[in-house]
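*** Backbone structure tokens ***
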Amino acid sequence: MNGWALGGLLCIIYTAVVGFLGYKSNPGLLKIVKMKLGKNMTDEKARKVTLIFAGIVGAFGIFCFIMAAI
């Protein structure tokens, strides 16, 4: 397993964990997101931000797998 494949695997694991916690509206995760990005953020907006970042990292994980295959 080379570095690209390992990075892709870690990105996919991150996407699965954070995406699931964001989808289920985990209060601990939403609290961290609101603390880092803005205190006046609503729970719904924090949930959307979490899912967007999980999608971006997931897309990068797929890119890493493609680079590992080349």
Remarks:
- Residues 43-69 form the longest helix (27 residues).
- Residues 28 and 58 are 22 Å apart (CA to CA).
- The helical segments are 3-23, 27-37, 43-69.
